Amino acid sequence: MIGTNRLMQKLADGPVICAEGYLFEMERRGYLQAGAFVPEVVLDHPEVVAQLHRDFVHAGSDVVLAFTYYAHREKLRLIGREAQLELMNRQALKLAKAVAAETGALFAGDICNTNVYDPNDAGSSDTCRAMFAEQVGWAVDAGVDYIVAETFSYGAEAIIAVETAKLSGLPVVATMAIHRAPETRDGWTPEDCCKRLEDAGADVVGLNCIRGIATMLPLVQRIVQTVRVPVAVLPVPYRTTARTPTFQSLRDEGCDCIPGGMPFPVALDPFTCNRFEVARFAVRARDAGARYIGICCGAMPHHVRALAEALGRSPPASRYSADMSKHAFFGTEASLKAVNREYAKEL
Predict the structure, then answer these.
(1) Would you call 201 helix, strand, or coil by DSSP?
(2) Residue 153 and residue 173: Cα distance in Å, rounded?
(3) Chain-centre distance of CA 42, in angstroms?
(4) Dihedral of CA 21/25/26/28: which sign?
(5) Predicted TM-score of the model (pTM)
(6) Is pLDDT at 3 greater than 70 in this prediction?
(7) With contact defined as beta carbons under 8 Å apart, do 89 and 82 qualify?
(8) C-alpha triplet 210, 212, 215: angle, nearest 5°
(9) Stretch 107-135: mean pLDDT, rounded?
(10) Rounded CA gap, 13 and 250, in Å?
(11) How far does Cα 249 stand from its chain's mean position?
(12) What angle do CA 116, 118, 120 make, to 5 degrees?
């Protein structure tokens, strides 16, 4: 099977599971700075990145996504490492390629929101296009199976990304980030925007990041009814609500020591979805018609395993899925001490 067809063949066979969320997980582990969120770790601690790739595949991800999110000129300029732009991208791609090869997973390149696009500045479109082109070029050199263009707030910027990525001849997965207002920053509905991305050549369209499970799924259902191509859904694993539909808008009324009162991005722990909520999401996303399913910022390997198992998979990590029948106090096996099992009601 030739590389350019691997994603589409996988989608034809059933849902594709994609683990994202590298930024938050690397920050939690102490290898990446919140705020800047630049993937310096691919240069500073490459072994940690490779292991997280392995952990996500072990848990059930069908994809190794190169950690090049925010590895673009604007972000590297902010931290004074723009001179390492190409080195950082090529290293991230090399790490992802090696893990994809050893596990048989799909290998994807990644481009994202530039933070320089301005609808009132015609020149910004050319700047964005150039930024996308260089990252896509490095991804093609690395031999990726497809390109992910993700986390765009402006539909127009996403279209530029899709047009640029499609010049590679590879499949493109394009996903939008919808903030508190249920539309893009251009004022397009999610379904209208995704239809425009489809018309621009995207092979998979949908949503990722920013919104949690409860506030993303209703938008995805409308997208499925509007487009012909497979639909992607990759929410953040946080308990967002109609009143607080994004993880930036969440507020923790039970804590008065968060600087500025905003839990995003480093005090979101109380809002984290458990594995059962993620499993339920996986089933609902599949039943809604989504074909490219995953979790974005905040995802941990146990979330990915729960998602995979809910979709009928048995990834290697399933060997260690919980079995409370063996628990000393709550277990049911006859060999367990009765004195402990009887004490369970006191715990």
Answers:
(1) coil
(2) 15
(3) 17
(4) positive
(5) 0.95
(6) no
(7) no
(8) 105
(9) 97
(10) 37
(11) 19
(12) 155
